[in-house]
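Handout, page 2. Input:
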Amino acid sequence: MSWTFPGHNDGEEFELEIDVSKDFEVFVDVDFDTETSYDSYVDVDSYIDVCVDIDGNQVTFNLDAQAIGDDGLVDSTVTAIATDDYVSLTMSGVVAVA
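Output:
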């Protein structure tokens, strides 16, 4: 392979030959053992407090659910329906810890 080298030797060509090689081997040996133990004990002291106030055709309520601990879960579903002559509110949920 030849290139024209810029500089004081303008127009002159020179030869450059490059051979690059590298031989290598890689050995990867991975060996491990795991032993997992998980214990969980939950002592639930549940207290449910629902306050419902019925006044004529109106119902007002408050709902409070709490759980104290690690790895908590909270999920709730609320469905509301209102038509000309019917209204409904449905709630369900869970509050838990591991």
